[in-house]
Amino acid sequence: MKLEGLRVLDLSLFLPGPHLSMMMADHGADVIKLEPPGEGDPGRLIGLGENGHTVFFRNANRGKRSISLNLKTEAGREALMKVVEGVDVLIEAFRPGVAKRLGFDYETVAARNPRIVYCSIAAFGQTGPYRDRPAHDLACEAMAGVVSVNLGNDDEPAMPHVPAADMAASLMSLSGILMALYRRERTGEGDHLDISMHDSILAWTPNVLGPVFVEKRPPVPKHERTWGGAAFYRIYRTKDGRHVVLGGQEAKFVRNLLEAWERPDLIALCDRGPGPHQQPVVEFLQGVFETRTQAEWVEWFEGRDICFAPVKHLREAFDDPHVEARGMRLLDADGQEHIGIPIRFGREPGQASFTLPQIGEHTEDVLRECGWSEAELERIRSAGAY
């Protein structure tokens, strides 16, 4: 696999960092996950689970090894630094300044391991006036303006339904780490990545910034092409109370549908672009969609060159035959479901390991691999390292 032979130390918890390191584990990296003594990663306790692990934990931490060290002790910090000396990548998501206080900031680590690629993930990054603010995904999306355009039918901001800032940071981190590893092959030197969840979600907005950058104003979501201001990029209710979407505004799609429904007179309104003038088209389409059930519309649109999709619930989404064909729903030997691997290679494809570690299960194994003797393990064990 692509990352075989790469050793990663992940000090992060919750979602961005663990998801990032899991993607690396799926492609062959040896990922060592540090967990605090006791309850370990909070993801172990969030949401429903089965066979001793939550769905959250197993879909962000499969294929890793777990070590547990008490970093409040000198012996625990000594043991972790021994691990640090032998890894290629370190991922941390402490609040800015905490790694330095613990003695694991980039400068200290790089002095012992100059080839290390050190990735820091924080809500607002390592610099700037907000760097010390506590925040998770929702606060980062709110500060980035994303929540302000995520409106319900009452025009009030609605809760985001996927952790976009978390996942954007995970993917930005993966990209940055791979760039740094590529550069290290030429220079022999590692680097320090400063990844901000806030930065990452801001970077996901290029298609909606026209009013913001040109007219210096916030967009009016219901007038914009991305958020319902275009009749052919919108959600419609069906006869059975379910929903469908039209998801493409290109002229050919508009003509194909409106001509099929004998309303070519509405094409000109769509040609003018998004905005309130498209309301007659919206009302016409809504009226038509309410005449059949979602399943009937799926059948009607089959084979037609129009961007259309039913709104599926998540159970339907993972049961979809296309998802099955793409391997995006995997079953382990116990019949438990896992999210598949989205990065697909023609050669050396990734492989999901369904092994999930117990807290600290591999602490002594990893330290032995670092060259520590049984006597040294007993010394730090008696000192409260684990």
Question: What this model shows, in words?
Answer:
The protein is of the alpha/beta class and 386 residues long. The chain folds into two domains: 7-203 and 326-382, Crotonobetainyl-coa:carnitine coa-transferase, domain 1 (Rossmann fold); 233-306, no CATH class. Helices cover 37% and strands 14% of the residues. The chain has 17 helices and 13 strands. The chain has helices spanning 16-26, 55-61, 74-84, 98-102, 106-112, 137-143, 164-187, 197-202, 210-214, 251-260, 267-271, 279-289, 294-301, 314-319, 321-325, 363-369, 374-382, and strands spanning 7-10, 30-35, 49-50, 53-54, 65-68, 89-92, 117-122, 191-196, 233-237, 243-247, 308-310, 329-331, 337-339. The strands form four sheets. The protein has a six-stranded parallel beta sheet, with helices on both faces. A hairpin with a 2-residue loop joins strand 3 and strand 4. Helix 1 crosses helix 7. The chain is elongated. The protein starts with 6 loop residues before the first strand and ends with a helix. The mean pLDDT is 96.
